[in-house]
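Protocol step 4 of 6: structure prediction from sequence.
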Amino acid sequence: MNKAKSTSAGIVAAPRTENEESSNSLMPTLRVRKNPIRNIIQSRIRQLLERYNESSSIKHTATKGSLREGYLKQFIADVAPTSLSVSSGFVVDARGESMSPQIDLLVFDPTAIPPFSLSDFVVVLPIESVCLSIEVKSALRASSFAQVREQQATFRNMRISLTAGTREYLYTVDCAGVPQFIVAFNSDCSLATIQTWFGDEPSLIAVCVIGKHTVFKDPRTDRLTTIVSDEHHNEVMILIGLMETIHRRVAFEFRDVQKQISIEGDTAFFPDIGAYICFDVPDDGKKVISDDSKSST
């Protein structure tokens, strides 16, 4: 078996055999055989890069950047898990005291609490529905990370609200941030600089520069890993797998929160539009309150 080379930043691409690929993502020694679905996704990545190259003939810088970001957004929307939806938009909580800046792409679970559309391409999303925030850039710069930190600070000022099935009780808990990707075609930042971002922003999961590399944090172990681009575009393939992993992790975290809620009886708490329309949500700590706004624990 070919071994991946180890560096201080993690695992980089291992040599491939003619008929097999060596995946160095969550299990660096795992070999993945080609299959039709994988081939289709790789073909779409190549189409994405072809569209990027075609746009080089456009001289207007702002238009070219906007087109390239649009190509990336459409690609991510096409490969997101079918149980999830993707849109640009704003995030709010039930208190209504703040709204996030517009996020390039929000990956969300429409079955938790549905989005509220402002247009065909822009929605307002309850924080309880959001699984992943994605910043899309034509060129990655230091200012891109500053923008992400600002967005995450807004998320951490929000509170997640859960109600019981009868809406007799409401439980609120601080939002610790939203899992974050940054995806770009080019980068003005060194790999070493990108790696430092993960220590500064705990919600950052992956930074992908298509055609160069992806740095990602394993959601299960927090280990930082670097995948160098190759002919199979594994630097992009890993993002698709991470989206589903993050979706599952968010679901598990909701279940953990539900287990911590202790009131009399077997009451189950879930994300619910009722938190937005049936309660005055408090902002002074973790509480389970009744509909008369009195603390029940």
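Step 5 (inspection) to follow. Helices lie at 36-54, 61-79, 142-156, 191-200, 234-260, 274-277.
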